[in-house]
Amino acid sequence: MNLQSGTYYWPTTFPDPPSYSSLDEDLSCDVLIIGGGSSGAQCAYYLANSNLDVVLIEKSRIGSGSTSTNTALIQYSGEKMFTDLINTFGADYIKRHLQLLKEAINEIETASKNVNIDCEFNRRDTLYSASCPEDVESLKKEYEFLKQQNGELTFLTKEEIEGKYPFSRDAAIYSYNDAEINPFRFTHALLDYAAQRGITIFENTEMNGHHYDEELGRMIVSTKTGCSIQARYIIFAAGYEGMDIKKEKKASFVSTYTVTTNPVEDFSEWYNRTLIWETARPYLFMRTTRDNRIIIGGLDENTTYPEDRDSKLIHKKNKLIEEFNKMFPTIKVQPDYYVSAFYGGTSDGIPIIGQYKEYPNCYFLFAFGDNGTVYSQMLAKIIVTEILEGNCPDLALYLQERPLLNKG
Fold first, then answer.
1. What gap in Å lies between CA 326 and CA 328, rounded to an integer?
2. Whole-model pTM above 0.85?
3. Which helix (H) or strand (E) holds 120?
4. Which neighbouring-strand residues pair with 296?
5. Fewer beta carbons within 10 Å, N or C terminal of the chain?
6. Beta strands in 237-313 (DSSP E)
């Protein structure tokens, strides 16, 4: 899958990361993780202190896929409001989902402290604003639900927003203690942590076939390096490329665009350097980085053709800078890096753990949606708990055929 095109910022922040050899012999293991991006790394992190024999393979270099373009706004709120999700899944279901998302953010912070490589994790507040007057009522309803669930947040009026920022919106939810992270460094940090605890990692080792051996009771994966790996369990954590292995009908793609600017000297106009996004669809979002750059993204296009996606990159780059300048006219920026990429979501707004009859003892981690890093952390923990303990009650919430619970 042609995932992305452009110039990538995150790899420049860690120019000499750990490297790993390619597989050159047949192996047998308890758990095989396929994919060396953030999802695979998060799975490896949770398996690192188990007694299982774990192997991870990556077809290219660690973190070279969508991880390199992940904007890594660490939030629990997503593209579909929780109040809308309740209409589909019921209140109890979504309350548990929200709780797991909050726990996943704390788990990301804990992981960033456990590793030896600085992941540039910072707690940040979020401004989620109404893009038009018609969105204020639904935003207020969302705020009231989150407040009932002990959310740390405030509802800002137009006057309050204008008092904090150089732009105006009719209303906004101001959330405390969301976060940001460097996803490239985070991925390498987790795998470095896992490797030090006995997990075997191979780069430049691409899967080119797989089948289930009934007699052995194991999946057999073959690689382009001419080797085979027998595994009791497989976690397909290949991100969007997991769809090349198993199509999931609930998943779909659009094209999205991001710009990373030159370093900025003065952020005094940007209140608390908050994460910023809005109710419009497609929406615009912004965050800052450790070295004082600004990442601006959004302006999604409903196309899944790479040539069409990439042909719009220069126009979208200019438009993103233009939209930023409207909001922050005194902060002068230039685009240093800019990317067009596929962005995956699900039809019902909930990420997926795929389990399919033709893939016995396998889990597909489809952390699709605008909170991919948080979803991955949550789903990785659920999958690993299921493998280690034989049962994780939360698994059923994220299976591809998830239940629609009573709407109580």
1. 6
2. yes
3. none
4. 259, 286
5. C
6. 251-261, 275-278, 284-288, 294-301
Q: Tell me, rounded to whole angstroms, the distance of Cα 358 from its chain centroid.
A: 27
> CA–CA separation, 393 vs 197, rounded Å?
28
User: How far is 127 from 134, CA to CA, in rounded Å?
Assistant: 18
CA–CA distances in Å: residue 169 to residues 6, 73, 264: 32, 21, 24
Query: How many Cα neighbours within 13 Å face the side chain of 16?
Result: 0
Instruction: Give the torsion sign (CA, 85, 275, 318, 305).
Output: negative
State the Cα–Cα distance between residues 196 and 188, nearest whole angstrom.
12
Per the structure block, which two tokens stand in for 13? 């922040």
Please check whether residue 182 is in contact with residue 190, taking contact to mean a CB–CB distance below 8 angstroms: no
Peptide bond into 282 cis (omega under 30): yes
Q: State in Å, rounded, how far the first CA of the chain is from the last one.
A: 41
Neighbours of 106 (CB within 10 A): 12
* Whole-number Å distance between alpha carbons of 344 and 107: 23
Per-residue model confidence as pLDDT tens for the chain (408 residues) = 788 999 999 999 999 999 999 999 999 999 999 999 999 999 999 999 999 999 999 999 999 999 999 999 999 999 899 999 999 999 999 999 999 999 999 999 999 999 999 999 999 999 999 999 999 999 999 999 999 999 999 999 999 999 999 999 999 999 999 999 999 999 999 999 999 999 999 999 999 999 999 999 999 999 998 999 999 999 999 988 888 888 999 999 999 999 999 999 999 999 999 999 999 988 899 999 999 999 999 999 999 899 999 999 999 999 999 999 999 999 999 999 999 999 899 999 999 999 999 999 999 999 999 899 999 999 999 999 999 999 999 999 999 998 765 444
Residues 6+ apart with CB under 8 A from 288: 180, 264, 267, 270, 273, 294, 295
CA–CA separation, 150 vs 147, rounded Å?
A: 5
